[in-house]
Amino acid sequence: MELLIGVLAVWKAGGAYVPLDPDYPAERIEYMLSDSEASVLLTQRHLLEGPEVGWPMTG
């Protein structure tokens, strides 16, 4: 349910949904975020405990 709400909110705000699997290697996630030129990352709190991918995280 959280995924659906998040995707709809992103689309309503005029953004794009880029699916990132937390099991992807950190280099792949970093590339995808860089290539998409994402300025905002919507995530779940428990995923912030994973490996760093070079993005500043605030909570």
Cα gyration radius (Å) = 12 Å
Helix content: 25-40%
Count of separate DSSP helical elements: 2
Task: Tell me the strand percentage band.
Answer: under 5%
Model description:
It contains 2 helices and no strands. By secondary structure, it is mainly α. The protein is globular. It starts with a helix and ends in a 23-residue tail after the last helix.
Brief overview, please?
By secondary structure, the chain is mainly α. The chain has 2 helices and no strands. It starts with a helix and ends in a 23-residue tail after the last helix.
Defining traits:
2 helices; single chain; globular; mainly alpha; 59 residues
What topology does this entry show?
Blueprint: H1 2-12, H2 26-36
